[in-house]
Amino acid sequence: MIRTLWLAALMIIATSTLSAVEAPPGFEAAFNGKNLDGWKGLVGNPIKRRSMSADDLAAAQQKADERMRAHWSVVDGVLVFDGKGDSLCTAKDYADFEMYVDWKIKKKGDSGIYLRGSPQLQIWDTENPDGFKNGADKGSGALWNNRHSGNRPLVKADRAVGEWNTFRIRMVGAKVWCWLNGQAVLDGVVMENYWERDKPIYPSGQIELQNHGNTLYFKNVFIREIETEEANRILSGGWKSLFNGNDLTGWIGATDNYEVHEGAIGCRPGKGGNLYTKDEYGDFVFRFEFQLPPGGNNGIGIRAPRQGDAAYAGMEIQVLDNTAKKFATLKPWQYHGSIYGLVSAHRGYLRPVGEWNHEEIRAVGSRITVTLNGTVIVDADVAKIEKPVSGREHPGRFRAKGHIGFCGHNDAVRFRNVVIREL
To answer: What is the mean pLDDT of residues 185-199?
Structure first.
């Protein structure tokens, strides 16, 4: 799994002991580190709760809350369960969400996280021989109650019993992803409905910290709700379209110098300038198709500011007809796919002029990888370059974020199927 600076910051916060809980950007602290505000006791299961009248449910909830407070407590910023009561439930229901939670168990411990009120993302002592028949030796983090969609983790990533572990959980629709201590243990697995096997999982519900009569510890519980647009990107593999195929909505800069024709963005002949995405991007995978006319020249600016030369203020990945005679004497770092002035690309992988090429630019920290028609032609850490080959400074290589754009040079280069996935 690739970690961005943002994700690294989340993990640092989520795995530290906080006296005053501060949620990472975009998240809310579901547990304030002081008391049980925002939590409630367990009343039956979703079917039972649904069948109860409002008055009966309120009365049952009052009793459940009293029982909850008798067995769950907060000690030094940690939620502690004494092993004698029921699960602890969020007072709020969640649909699509992402969650961080730290957990710790004792020997022979057995716990889990109920999602939308349903069992469960498994937690247990993976070294307990008594649990091997149920898969404990395979590790925590799987949907143990699944019958058909898979109920084993991808890897065993648990730390030793008595040590803190960190879950990152994401649920969109019926699909669940889980990372345990930074390793992916569940990848978009459909969660089955344990309570009603003939129905899909409920569209929303409470999150529960489950118990099996063991002493349990939880802290740093952070949750954020996932909105519609992000949910759609996740369900489509995280890819977001940057071009609607009809107009330049979402693009800024030299919009008058570009046109949309037959589902492609093209630089107008004799025109140029930079056409930038409205939004800025840090770590990402950017994919597109491009078509070169004879002698065509353009470029892809990445992490660029609005002002200045994208090749120096940001970075520019060359888009160029390598076969044109007028380009025969260029420097190696000026040919197609090169990071202009910094890194020379391997040549010989462009399709014939006039055909559509497929390209991917991956930017992760200071490492830039360019893949042309399925072949990696650049893979370099630009921060480790001591002296740029252009002989000029390129301060833009140290930028962490900026616009992505087409850098036109008066030629009718065309682009289509322009998508991005933020990392």
So the answer is: 93
Of 134, 125, 117, nearest to 209 by C-alpha is 117
Q: Which residues contact 176 (CB under 8 A, 6 or more apart)?
A: 115, 121, 143, 169, 170, 186, 188, 189, 190, 191
| pTM beyond cutoff 0.70 | no
Find all residues with CB under 8 Å of 294, minimum gap 6, and list them. Answer: 321, 324, 353
Q: What is the pLDDT of residues 194-227, one digit of tens each?
A: 999 989 899 999 999 999 899 999 999 999 999 9
The CA R_g of the chain, rounded to the nearest whole Å, is 27
Q: Over the stretch 341-395, which tens digit does the pLDDT of each residue have?
A: 999 999 999 999 999 999 999 999 999 999 999 999 999 999 999 999 999 999 9
What structural domains and CATH numbers belong to the chain? 5-235 (2.60.120.560), 240-422 (2.60.120.560)
Report how far residue 50's alpha carbon sits from residue 68's, in angstroms, rounded to the nearest whole number: 21
Contact 317, 299 (CB under 8 A): yes
